[in-house]
Amino acid sequence: MNQTGGKYDFCIGLVLAMSSSIFIGGSFILKKKGLLRLARKGSMRAGQGGHAYLKEWLWWAGLLSMGAGEVANFAAYAFAPATLVTPLGALSVLVSAILSSFFLNEKLNLHGKIGCLLSILGSTVMVIHAPQEEEVETLNEMSHKLGDPGFVVFATLVVIVSLILIFVVGPRHGQTNILVYITICSVIGALSVSCVKGLGIAIKELFAGKPVLKHPLSWILLLSLIVCVSTQINYLNRALDIFNTSIVTPIYYVIFTTSVLTCSAILFKEWQHMAADDIIGTFSGFLTIIVGIFLLHAFKDVNFTLANLPLSLRKDDRAANGTLLSTYDCFNHDEETSPCLSEIQSTESLSARRNGSLSAF
Q1: Measuring CA to CA, which of 121, 186, 276, 322 is 20 to 30 A from 245?
Q2: Domain ranges in the chain?
Q3: For residues 244 and 229, what is the distance between their CA atoms, to the nearest angstrom?
């Protein structure tokens, strides 16, 4: 691949990845609205194993939106490295958070806005430092990669962990622990990304006139992708039905992205061809995104805006100089002398107690 073609493919992959995030972020809202409507009707909830959501048009709209996003995401993997495409999923978190504030009555406060900004900055840093050349170009190369002992061990561990979570941990703790269902989606998602990457290469070879349909790996990857995606949809629905969207989305992003980056490092070994500053930049961007997502959702119930900032600073100043300010106010407002003195005495009493003084008693 020449340098000009590589940059062209990189830009196509970047645009597709961003479009994918918009569709997927919107799909969370549509599916959640559909599940909430079913809950109000008294139907058996998805978290309890029900499938009434299959009759809800809003849920289907969300599924179609997610499908469009996944198609764009699928195509993005064919043009750009997984190290770039997967972390840009943070944009779907931003879309989900913004739309949640409009359609699910979930507030986006100052912390959330700062989190959005940090996530965008982190994504930009990752785009700048992401590898711009692909190592795997054909299905034969992909076949050799999949047969690598390191990836075989990784895939085996993922399958074993997923089966334990599905059949042992899930029935016991899935309703109370948010990590159970999300972990199932995330670790299986790492395998689905590998399948998507391989199928993307197959499609590019198909358009180039190569007989990829006769290659058994194409059908193995397609079947594996169907199984992985079906499992992801099932358990993501359960997590969305039981827990708040603003909690599910960021946790899913962090675990899923970490799983994919790990899988990419083992399978495609893209990191071996990156300079030290690019590796540091990629990790820094990813950590910045995580901090942004944390701010976006950890303080979502705190009603804090820019308008509250001056008031908050004044309160901090009053707390630091509380006794002096209270005394000054008392001597300048005779009508409030008694309450102020009482407040001063109370403050001094509390201070004395903290210092272990017996005079406080």
Answers
A1: 121
A2: 1-106, 133-272
A3: 22
